[in-house]
Amino acid sequence: MTTATSYGAAHAALLKEGKKIQIGSHDGLRSRNSVGLSRRHVNLFSVSLPRPNPLIRAVSSPVKPETETKRSKVEIIKEHSNFIRYPLNEELLTDAQNINESATQIIKFHGSYQQYDRDERGARSYSFMLRTKNPCGKVPNKLYLTMDDLADQFGIGTLRLTTRQTFQLHGVLKKNLKTVMSSIIHSMGSTLGACGDLNRNVLAPAAPFARKDYQFAQQTADDIAALLTPQSGFYYDMWVDGEKIMSAEPPEVVKARNDNSHGTNFPDSPEPIYGTQFLPRKFKIAVTVPTDNSVDLLTNDIGVVVVTDADGEPQGFNLYVGGGMGRTHRLETTFPRLAESLGYVPKEDILYAVKAIVVTQRENGRRDDRKYSRMKYLISSWGIEKFRSVVEEYYGKKFEPSRELPEWEFKSYLGWHEQGDGGLFCGLHVDSGRVGGKMKTTLREIIEKYNLDVRLTPNQNIILCGIRKAWKRPITTALAQAGLLEPKYVDPLNLTAMACPALPMCPLAITEAERGIPGILKRIRAVFEKVGLKYNESVVIRATGCPNGCARPYMAELGFVGDGPNSYQLWLGGTPNQTSLARTFMNKVKIHDLEKVLEPLFYNWKRKRQSKESFGDFTNRVGFETLQEWVEKWDGVVSTRSTYNLRLFTDKDTYEKMDELAKLQNKTAHQLAMEVISNYAAAQQNGKGE
């Protein structure tokens, strides 16, 4: 077999020797002794070199051997990038405020997207969004304070908490990129691999519990993130002039990365796992413990679940593969998909098993059409049995049968909780993850004053960690004054809702999401009241401005997916514990027509549901044909005038304080007061009053 050499290094060596290069069809580099389903090889180039067998092989793709595979434009850009450097390194030196098309693809691997404000007319004003990489959502105190500063100095004055436990910083100008990137790197942070065709941020439960299973899950997420971090140094070359600022890696990570006993690696490449071509598309991994589905486990390319013995000692992991959300409108061959069970591995094998799965996708995932390049399409095409058998070749072992697990629950970790080590943590709800204004100022003051570390959740919320019990009262007061209320004082619809940023900055957005969801939630609350649903009842609502699914709308009980200006595709049938995939219910629902669709659905849910039946379960049981009939025949709710006349405020001072808090949430004082009273009454009825 031949050695897989990097295109960039070989290209440079050949040019130096004056050799001619013949470029052929290529969809990635094949590793030494690699095993794939197809044994087709395509010569990248053929020259006379001073060693035998000078061919450099290409990655197999699941197509017929006699077919010459077309490659996407991005694959060619990666091939010629000198390991994700060129042409970004040159484009950053120009006076233009933007970078060219090839550089926009390359900068994604560095954790950034080029954007422009779509609300502005005339010439485009370009800027860059930076996304951090925070395995488990861990944010050290120093990094949080740095991100807060950078948002004010070089961004738009806000921080965005993402659905993958990271920060997004919008509005950074090209001339400031190096300053911002180097500041993040020198503050214990990174943006490397937060975007691009490689492993993205690894999710894990954000709760800082001092429990063996949680800590083991979080350590495993850290190790997987380290295993799949690029090694060729392009990131540090670009932003800190080659200075490598990295913590020491666990020896088991280094050993697993370097192991090539089953043909997984490119031995002579600066990228032993990724090679020159990296992966066909983005790759997402989540790690969790049984019952805790705070990470939307089944939406990931790989889901990893800690399995413990009766004493709580971690023994191994169940693995799930093939999840993914992205799709394309009006193209039925693209679809969201839930991960399915692959098998069980003992704990000492987890890094090798994950690496084998990644390499199977690297070698066989499609590189001709990026719409079909995610691993979910490979598994959908092959079937799980065939996929498992190929992974086992790279793993070198057979997977054991998956262990039985209890039912999943969605856990938000909002409010105050015991960590188990004498300290407390406080989970704070942040609407659509947008931290700005007084909220941002207050969070910074608290985090700085008490020297707190932070965790970001997959639901766009934030957790303050390591709080002494004596600090609880002053922190609670300060948070409330900034509108960061305890969950019992927040509308239940808001607590589980998510939205992507969409307009005005996302170039893919078709309509509003983050800016639109506050109004949508208010209107749904009004529909709840109209049809007689109680205040403490809720449904999981998620909105995205396009079908790519960044806010995972296809797992929602009620998903809004932008399909035109002020228009949404409605998805129904997800469940509160995030284990069922929603389905398309209606297309092209105009924003002003929402009530016509939602009123009959919620009205009948209120009257025809079974005991404790969620809205998602109800829609699945009843069936879409019946739901459609209800919508078409809907005549409206016969409303009766309220006989209640409540005077909520007896003094001006109380009203003004409530009004100040209400304005922070874009509500009236009366609305907020009613929410507080309703929540309190509901808590008392449920026996949960304090």
UniProtKB/TrEMBL annotation:
<dbReference type="GO" id="GO:0019418">
    <property type="term" value="P:sulfide oxidation"/>
</dbReference>
<dbReference type="GO" id="GO:0051539">
    <property type="term" value="F:4 iron, 4 sulfur cluster binding"/>
</dbReference>
<dbReference type="GO" id="GO:0050311">
    <property type="term" value="F:sulfite reductase (ferredoxin) activity"/>
</dbReference>
<keyword id="KW-0934">Plastid</keyword>
<dbReference type="InterPro" id="IPR006067">
    <property type="entry name" value="NO2/SO3_Rdtase_4Fe4S_dom"/>
</dbReference>
<dbReference type="GO" id="GO:0003677">
    <property type="term" value="F:DNA binding"/>
</dbReference>
<keyword id="KW-0411">Iron-sulfur</keyword>
<dbReference type="Pfam" id="PF01077">
    <property type="entry name" value="NIR_SIR"/>
</dbReference>
<comment type="similarity">
    <text>Belongs to the nitrite and sulfite reductase 4Fe-4S domain family.</text>
</comment>
<dbReference type="InterPro" id="IPR005117">
    <property type="entry name" value="NiRdtase/SiRdtase_haem-b_fer"/>
</dbReference>
<dbReference type="InterPro" id="IPR011787">
    <property type="entry name" value="SiR_ferredoxin-dep"/>
</dbReference>
<protein>
    <recommendedName>
        <fullName>Sulfite reductase [ferredoxin], chloroplastic</fullName>
        <ecNumber>1.8.7.1</ecNumber>
    </recommendedName>
</protein>
<comment type="function">
    <text>Essential protein with sulfite reductase activity required in assimilatory sulfate reduction pathway during both primary and secondary metabolism and thus involved in development and growth.</text>
</comment>
<feature type="domain" description="Nitrite/sulphite reductase 4Fe-4S">
    <location>
        <begin position="496"/>
        <end position="633"/>
    </location>
</feature>
<keyword id="KW-0349">Heme</keyword>
<comment type="function">
    <text>DNA-binding protein that binds to both double-stranded and single-stranded DNA without significant sequence specificity to reversibly repress the transcriptional activity of chloroplast nucleoids by promoting DNA compaction and possibly regulate DNA replication.</text>
</comment>
<dbReference type="InterPro" id="IPR006066">
    <property type="entry name" value="NO2/SO3_Rdtase_FeS/sirohaem_BS"/>
</dbReference>
<keyword id="KW-0004">4Fe-4S</keyword>
<feature type="domain" description="Nitrite/Sulfite reductase ferredoxin-like">
    <location>
        <begin position="127"/>
        <end position="182"/>
    </location>
</feature>
<comment type="subunit">
    <text>Monomer. Interacts with ferredoxin.</text>
</comment>
<keyword id="KW-0479">Metal-binding</keyword>
<dbReference type="GO" id="GO:0000103">
    <property type="term" value="P:sulfate assimilation"/>
</dbReference>
<keyword id="KW-0408">Iron</keyword>
<keyword id="KW-0883">Thioether bond</keyword>
<keyword id="KW-0150">Chloroplast</keyword>
<keyword id="KW-0238">DNA-binding</keyword>
<feature type="domain" description="Nitrite/sulphite reductase 4Fe-4S">
    <location>
        <begin position="225"/>
        <end position="399"/>
    </location>
</feature>
<dbReference type="InterPro" id="IPR036136">
    <property type="entry name" value="Nit/Sulf_reduc_fer-like_dom_sf"/>
</dbReference>
<dbReference type="InterPro" id="IPR045169">
    <property type="entry name" value="NO2/SO3_Rdtase_4Fe4S_prot"/>
</dbReference>
<dbReference type="InterPro" id="IPR045854">
    <property type="entry name" value="NO2/SO3_Rdtase_4Fe4S_sf"/>
</dbReference>
<feature type="domain" description="Nitrite/Sulfite reductase ferredoxin-like">
    <location>
        <begin position="417"/>
        <end position="480"/>
    </location>
</feature>
<dbReference type="Pfam" id="PF03460">
    <property type="entry name" value="NIR_SIR_ferr"/>
</dbReference>
<dbReference type="GO" id="GO:0042644">
    <property type="term" value="C:chloroplast nucleoid"/>
</dbReference>
<dbReference type="GO" id="GO:0046872">
    <property type="term" value="F:metal ion binding"/>
</dbReference>
<dbReference type="GO" id="GO:0016002">
    <property type="term" value="F:sulfite reductase activity"/>
</dbReference>
<dbReference type="GO" id="GO:0020037">
    <property type="term" value="F:heme binding"/>
</dbReference>
<dbReference type="GO" id="GO:0009337">
    <property type="term" value="C:sulfite reductase complex (NADPH)"/>
</dbReference>
<keyword id="KW-0809">Transit peptide</keyword>
<keyword id="KW-0560">Oxidoreductase</keyword>
